[in-house]
Design goal:
Elements (H helix, E strand, L loop, with lengths): L2 H16 L3 H6 L5 H8 L2 H34 L5 E3 L2 E3 L8 H20 L9
Helix pairs in contact: 3-4
């Protein structure tokens, strides 16, 4: 446990006991944080924090999960495409260019030819 972990609890405790943030919020009798921002600061600040929250939500719920899923798929070595109900499903919702389909067919042909030529009885391909 590092220095920051040791100091975190006492600082958090002092902030909670003093009511550093909550005191002003309750004093205004605002029902929402956005209403508090408008009462305490201005309408433009309320709109700014709304836009900031919207952007953070898009990143949090849209972009971060996609990046995380792709990292995990790459890290665990999952294939780029999968088959479901006879259709190939790629990384981009099944959209594959003709070049990538051709490359996949050529790869399969090369592997099958290598397996046929292998006369030692072993079918391990690299």
């Amino acid at each position: 446990m590092g220095w920051w972990s040791w100091i975190q609890f006492p600082v958090w405790f002092l902030v909670v006991i003093s009511g550093f943030v909550i005191y002003r919020y309750r004093e205004t009798r605002a029902m929402t944080l956005a209403q508090f921002f408008e009462i305490r600061y201005s309408r433009s600040f309320r709109v700014f924090t709304g836009i900031l929250g919207f952007g953070a939500g898009i990143v949090n719920f849209g972009i971060i999960p996609v990046v995380g899923a792709r990292f995990i798929a790459y890290f665990l070595g999952f294939p780029a495409t999968a088959r479901a109900k006879g259709r190939s499903i790629g990384k981009r919702f099944g959209a594959q260019s003709p070049e990538s389909r051709r490359a996949g067919r050529d790869r399969k042909r090369i592997h099958s030819l290598a397996a046929i030529k292998n006369t030692s009885g072993s079918f391990h391909l690299t």
